[in-house]
Sequence to fold (230 residues):
Amino acid sequence: MHQSTLNDAALALSRILSFNKIKHGFFGGWSVLACSPHAAYRESKDIDVLVAATKPTIQRILSQKRGWLEIPQCREDYVAFFWCDTEGSQSMVLVEMFVGHEEMARDQFPVSRNQVLSGPRMGTSYVPILKEEFLFRGKLSACATRTKSSDVADVDYLVRNYGKELKMAAKKMDKKTVGMAVRRHPELRKVLGELGVHTRGAVWGVRKARLDGQSQPQMWDVQRGLGICF
Fold:
């Protein structure tokens, strides 16, 4: 999907959440691309956002807004909507929100920075995107649970462009996460080595774990992957 359409969806959501004084921060593949205007190595298909609010709160707010269509599912930690800028348009953007509670906004919420975005429908404005440390954490956690090559490409891009900033975060990563990520994507051994991460022990620790395709996400897994305790 064209990046400008995703930008429009992010701007539309951020304005609604900001108006309702709800802390939020974008992450995932789209955010990596949005932070780096020259990162044209791939396209993104959806938007991920961490939201310091409960699922019912988000459902109530967005159900009243034109252009937002909820995708029903039963997970407590996650709510998804399609966003469409005009009625009847075929350009529907999947927006995945990983929710929590209002208390998360006080001292647990990851650090974000304001990023200028422009979209053909929503104009130009700022949106909060999690800092590179948390983009890296989230992407490496994704590598540990699934086999999408885009996750590896994003980790590689972040390491090549923000290596100095990521060294401390990489060394603090959970060893199981590192081990599973490298087992699923052996090419990460070299990438993480550039950050000074010794992966041999981490891989040995998960040597008996099964790698049957994509792991089923457990409650709060994504939030924990970003460094939030539940």
User: Anything to note?
Assistant: The longest helix spans residues 149-171. The chain has ten helices and seven strands. Residues 53 and 101 are 4 Å apart (CA to CA). The mean pLDDT is 91.
